[in-house]
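A protein record pairs a chain with a discrete description of its three-dimensional fold. The shape at a given residue is found from the number at the same position. Here is what such a record looks like in full:
>
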Amino acid sequence: MNNKKRSGVLLPLFSLPGKYGIGSLGQYCKKFIDFLSESKFSYWEVLPINMTNIEGSPYNLVDAFGTNYLYIDIDELIKEGLLNSRDIKGMNFCNDARNVNYPLVFETHRKLLFKAYKRDNLKSKYFKECINNKEIKEYAIYMTLKEKNNFKAWYDWELEDRYYCKEVEEYVLKNEEKLYLFYVWTQAKFKEQWDKIHDYAKSKNISLVGEISHFLGYDSCQMYMHPELFLVDKRNQITHVSGFPKDEFSNVGQKWGNPLYDWNYMKQDNYKWWNRRISEAFFYFDYVKLNHFRAFYKTYAIPFRAKNALKGEYIDGPKYDFFEDKLDQNLISSDLGKYSEDISKFALSLPYPVCRTTILGYVSFERKEFKKFLPSSLPINSYSYLGNHDNQPILLALKDLNEEDLLKVKEIIKEECTKLNVEFVDSTNIKYLASKTIELLFASNANNVTLQFQDVLFSYSERRTNTPGTVSSLNWSHRFLSSDLVKSTVNKFIELNQKYNRSI
């Protein structure tokens, strides 16, 4: 456990500014790192960076290893001479600079990237590494077949492609070589650009915190090529899917629909596939959060054909056995503290920092068990947030409270300020109360405290990144403008980081 106090910002890559419809690994990445460094933050946390489906959810992946080529920076390709201004002319990347239009971005970026690929000599060290990488080979084969079948889910492909076998692989490598190599190239180019960003972050003393999405989509490379990794019947059909029981977000629970792992099968080779995932993540990140950590202990399994999550039941995960050879790795347990006692005990028995979201302690004041989320109760060995990607920004959360509830929250904040020796002026002004929740987080004992970027900007206009249990084009699409980064924000966090000894 590292007891050094630090602070960081959660900002998904897709939320970065830029003129090509989605955030990317280019100049705005570096500008954001500059902002973090100037503001005395220590790390940048991003959501999973793997390839997604057309809805863009970073938690519904089409491959466990393949990275999202939408993040490849177009301007960098222009600098390399792989694209030019004529290629860009007349192309429409977005209808709203603050919102990712995923269908449009998939279409435009696919066209541009293929042009750049055809002009590349394919001799970079990154391409040579990727062409010999087993997981990237499988990803490229899968994506080639997906494009051949008009990007449909694998279970809707033409019959000759639907069931993976050696003959299908040989067909792709022989008859679809150009397309196959394109998808290998996207992985090489992503790695190349990421390396530059990672090196730049290191030069600014900014660590990168990433996340492994626990589950994969049913429409995924691994489900298609390696159904043995999952709980399936004799016909390789899934019988149960992932989800979450009813909670404050949904009274019928959440049915996510991801296939569940066959941990007994994985244990036979000491979890080789999962170990490879974690090893790959450390190529990209300095610290790695294991999403939905509770699933390593037990998973909420829902019958495949159930309408909602009410009929689900828990099944066991690998538990302690999985982590015996990983105790010294820079992993983060995404135990949010809302779990049953046995799961929390499991998470706390391991040496990894746990996650907490303090916003729940304020706005869920009617539930006594949520008091442990308040800043004065945060564990030292934790990554503690005001709110994460599933929570409202604090200003909007407080604005939604009625007058009576706002007074109750004010009293909680006042009491927390007393406990943590933070100055408090008796007021129900929403901006003042919101600013105190931020300061209280910095004043806490948690060695890592994280703000989502909406709370850094401190604006009523900033919407949430995701609303759990909903399907909407507003989820996973919110973006920021470069003009949002102003000097007063930098000065505010220089002061907070220095006051509470979290400055780099």
The chain has 19 helices and twelve strands. The two ends are 18 Å apart (CA to CA).
